[in-house]
Every structure is written in structure tokens, then in C-alpha cells.
Amino acid sequence: MQKSIELTYGSRTLRGMMHVPDTHGKAPMVVMFHGFTGNKVESHFIFVKLSRELEKAGIGSVRFDFYGSGESDGDFIDMTFSGEVEDARHIVDFVKNDPLTDVNNIGILGFSMGGAIAAIIAKEYKNVVKSLVLWAPAFNMRDAIMLQSQSEAGNLLNEHGFVDIGGLALGKGFVLDIAGIDIFESAKGYDKDVLIVHGTKDEAVPYTVSEEILKTIYKENGHRISIDGSDHTFSRLDWQKKAIDESVAFLKEKLK
Description:
alpha/beta; about 25% strand
């Protein structure tokens, strides 16, 4: 079963999609967080494909557009990293309180910047989140943005208050916000099993980033699946299949 869902907190309404397997009673549930400039469908519809495969495996899923993205309220120019973390907290609470959710079997999967957010939320909700999957996790987001802020894009940002990134207006507030966030430090403390899926030719989040994550944060509980030759968004059918198959197998094992 697939149905549209909404979540409102304060003045924000987030819009999403829930997949529930055809089982009687409560089901394990995976919360999915999209990436920077992404949405609840993601590139090549990969989040839709993942949701459908999870459903076949008896696992439900919930994927919302963050504030300022997709069909949710707000404009992209007002989006910040901290704002998406706050959205994510409310999304997890929404899932935890849904009558269809088996609260003892909740997992999180995040892609790119959504992976960084997922890692922070998993730490904050470590008594709720039973397993964590990170696709090309952008723990390097602060460094990448700071580097851009020193370029011509940074000059435009200071002059106009935003910069055009592929037809989206990235606001100065995003840069000021993320400058004060240490993603590596904020993610420390989650002690359950973690799967990282990463392409070796990722141009946005270098492959070395996931190496550093495993060395410094998930020394004992982390495992990485490498997709040889894959770019950031797994933009080939075989790369997508491996990312999805490995993630579904992991979540099926961990969410009993």
C-alpha cells in the first residue's frame, strides 16, 4: 500500500509518501532522508524504487520532502542544515507515533546531505533507531560549502544574499548556519549497526569521506559496501541495483 501523508509542526507542513507492506498489524519502518537539492523521489526515482523493494521485503517506509524542497511548504532559499535536522526530528516522531509502525523496528536511511542528517538523528534517537544506512554521506558538506563561499559564488552570495545553483536559490543563511556545525562530532555516539554505501568515483562526496567516517565514528559497528566506478547518485542501473539490494538485505536482517 502506498499513500500520501502530511506532517505539520509550527507553521510548516511537510508532504511525503508512506509505503506499507501487505501484512496484518504493525510493520518495521524505514525513514528516508533525501539529499541537498533533492526530494522524496530522488535522482532516477531511486527512493521510489527502494521503497517498493522494502515493501516487497515486508518493510514499510516514509519519505518526506524537507521544508523548502519538493512539495513541502517553504522556499529553497530559506532552507538550512539545522532546519532540516529539526524537520527530521519531527519526521521520526511522526513515524514513531504512527499506528502502523512497529516501534521496536525503526531504521533510517539517508542520502548525501540527508545521510549526514540521518547520522545526527540516529545518535539523538539511538534508543529508537535500530539500524542506519548511509548512502554517499556528505559529512564533508561544511568544508565544501566553505570552499565555495570563498569563490566567485561566495561573492555573488554576499552581494545578492543568494546564489543560483542549478535553478535553485541557495541562501546566505545556509552558509552561515552550516559554518558552525561539526557533522563528524554531532554524529558520534550511535552504537548500533551502520551500513555505508558509496561509489568509488563519487565527485560530490569523495570516497575518502566514508573511510574517515568508519575510522573516526563507526569503528566497531560500521560496514561499507563499495560500488566500483559509481558516481554520487548511482546513475547507472547496475549501480542502483547494488545500492538498493545491499540496503534491503541489511535492513531486512536488522529490522526483525
